[in-house]
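re: ur question from earlier - yeah i can do the single chain one, its not a big deal. heres the input i used so u can compare w yours
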Amino acid sequence: MDLEFRNLTYTVHSRIMRGTSRQVVKGVNGKFMSGQLVAIMGPSGAGKSSLLNAISGYRSAGVTGELLVNGEPRDEQLFQKSSCYITQEDLLQPLLTVREAMDVAASLKLPKGAKAPSEEILQELGLLEHQHTKTDMLSGGQKKRLSIALELVNNPPVFFLDEPTSGLDNVTTMQCVKLLKQLARQGRTVVCTIHQPAASLFELFDQAYVIADGLCIYQGDTDAMVPHLSTLGLVCPRHHNPADYIIELTEHQQYIKVLSEEILNGTLYKSAKIDSTSHEPVNNMQLKICYQADDNLMETELVVSNEKCTYKMKEYTAVAVSASSTTLASKMSREDSSIAWMKMQKTEAKGYPTTYFEQFTILLSRMLLQISRNRQALWIQSIHHIGCAILVGVCFFNMANDGTQMFNHLKMCVGLVIFFVYTQIMVPVLVYPQEVKLVKKEHFNGWYNLVPYYAALTVSKLPVQVSLNVIFCSIVYFMVGVPYAHDRYLTFCLTGNIVSLVSEGVGMAIGSVFSVRNGCAIGPAAIAPFLGLAIYGFDFAHRIPLLMNIIMKTSFIRCGVVAMVLTIFGFGRQPLDCSDVYCHFAKPDVLLKYLDIENNSVWFEILIMVVIMLSVRFLCFMGLRWRFAT
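and the output i got, formated as tokens:
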């Protein structure tokens, strides 16, 4: 699949100062050919990643211009299923082995019943001996190879990689680039950004696309870059890295303008191919062509200013596949990868290879497996719930049946609700932003739809969360001395779980939109108004205005406290014990009337909390959609 873009512009709008924007890619043009390994180069802040995001479709807001595939306007939905994007950060599902990660990818990306060449891919990428190693135990190079292997499962014809060599040592970097070149030689279009490669690494790339200040200053074969610069009077020193030299030129704004105008902002392509029938000097350079035994290589000697420089010129008349990759290539397809891919996608009517229910079951199984393997987190949560339950039980031991302890009863109900709130809200605020990055990559690469993912995420958390909440409620219920009744006990546990689910939904809504740093500030701040409304007016409940009563219903913490009080002192409870001569609140009805909730229904309070829970979880879903669209 040949990729082409014309007059491509990418404008970033400031989220802080409205009305301000900055053009990071400025009307560039270019063409990336199949079978070639393409490097997008440039200094820091030049627009490399922005250009890659724009042509891959990873960023769509603020992008204008023509995007073509094989000379035709591309269908964005179909193109996303025909390509994959590998981020600079190695985003892998934790607590899964390499083989398990491959199996999940195959289950999601291939039609049911199709056999995935997982073993062949792992063998080819040197990961077969590590197939039982967990992903978080892999080295940097192995993680990068696994990221590539996961996308190779369905053999997409286009690969986009953002800084694939970032953080790798020289040896691993060379291995990574050689792997990418091997993938390109199998007929794929491989495009990656790279900052400033060494000379030995630079010569492995077939095509270089150099961008500076949002403008294209060179596009063409890597072998033709130095001769092209020489025609402009910019002579690269003999023992100087060409990649370093052209980046150094971008330090001067006048060079950027001259180079961009010479290449017509990417419209021209500088080829290293030389017409063998022409032996005339070109641009005052004498050309001497020497054919080698390999028909795909020829050596050209350039004489510039009486100094000799030798460059290897490559011709791509055929796709050269290394012997080591022959097995993998034959396993995956003998047919041209782009044609095979387009045929498969058309038969799927632009949908996913698996149904939504299959995606839900696969993702749910993966999430439950990861939760079960996170033993440390399970132990911490268990100790936290049991320890806090015992502490609350000791503080309010056997008080729930004492008619002289009315205010302690209210403190206990407020304390229980606050426990559920703050226990559940901060975990997703701290953890979920990182997972959002991974989910965005998998969703963009066509693994699954957002709906089954979100459903699986919600269901997967229920077993542990509900179990620990029930353990906490059971310990507190019996230690504080609440009279046992089936309906009262079940409602007590249900109220705690609903508050917990609402609070978790608030945390997930925050984590889906904000970073960890901002979420840590927004999380407690978002709970503060709910908490203020929860404790407002207990001592003058009858004098609270109607409007204020309506506003208080928007606080799920207030609803949780009221539901707790109705559960403990409702359900036809008998009078409390009284050790004094007179206990004003010995009868539960008197307490409920004093709090002005004698006509309230515990089920109505729970219903309000359920509505709030559905609302905040819908906000979380919309937050994810917004993050994936930007």
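Residues 274-350 have pLDDT under 50 and may be disordered. not sure if urs matches, ping me
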